[in-house]
Amino acid sequence: QVQLVESGGGVVQAGGSLRLSCAASGSILHIRTMGWYRQAPGKQREFVATIGNGESTNYADSVKGRFTISRDNAQRTVYLQMNSLKPEDTAVYYCNLVTSPFGYNYYGQGTQVTVSS
Known about the structure:
Blueprint lengths: L1 E6 L2 E4 L4 E9 L3 E10 L6 E7 L4 E3 L7 E6 L4 E6 L8 E10 L4 E3 L3 E6 L1
Parallel strand pairs: 2-11
Antiparallel strand pairs: 1-3, 3-8, 4-5, 4-9, 5-6, 7-8, 9-10, 9-11
């Protein structure tokens, strides 16, 4: 069983910053990637960012240059530093973990991020 626990969400004004954290625990042999997805009201869940074992990163175009993903392998923790936040960044943010070699996908419970204009 794998558990992902997110923290760091909240309410911030446009232009502000937040830092999300996600700690993984449980029966994890190897981690392929950790990352973040988000879901705004009335919309489908969308990709935000991922980071691989070799520290390779991928970002959605909508957050490039504003968000930075990082990872602490020893602590099995992934972070998302969000700067220059916009009202359209308002969503529930979900931590994601993909295992290796079988590619099992896990999501956390989510943390709410609200950006006021």
